[in-house]
Each structure stands twice: as structure tokens, then as C-alpha cells.
Amino acid sequence: MKAAPDWQSAPVLRTQFYATSGAWGRALESARPAFDSREPLDAATTRVLGQLALRAGDRERGEAMLHHFMDEAEVAVERRRIDSAMSWVDAERPSDQPLPIF
Prior knowledge:
mainly alpha; single chain; 6 helices
């Protein structure tokens, strides 16, 4: 029988846990080894890390990562898409639309 991985020693599992629960800042912090790595990242990983940084409010890092494979217009569209889904971003809301819970 194989032992379950220790979530304290598995940055990917911690990052997934925090992101799934909406704790974007904690997810970003647990993904720091990937951001700090000197190893080149594949496009999918770079995209996910860029999106994570945007969700956590680190626009500079998120946009820089997305610029590796997107032009300025595409990055702006992605940023607006993510911002529209984030409850911490100040945005006008119709009076009949409830505020997000988290």
C-alpha cells in the first residue's frame, strides 16, 4: 500500500487546495517555488501561474508571465476576465445583484 503524500511537503497539492478554496494569496505563496525556479516552465504552467498571480492581486507578476505567450491585447482580455470573477475587485454592480460571499 502506498502512503498518501504529505500535503505540507507538496507545493502543488497545497496550491491546488488553496486555489480551490479561494485563498488566492495563500495559493500564490505556496506556488512560490515554481515562480522562483530557474528551470524553464512550459506554456501551460506559465499560463496557470500567471492567472493565479492575477487572482491573488499580483498584477505585475501575472501579466509578466502571461506576456511570455500572449500579446498586450490578449493579456488585457485575460486580466479583465479574471477581474470580473474576483469579488475583491471593485466594480459597479446592478442594485439587484447580490454581493459575492467571498
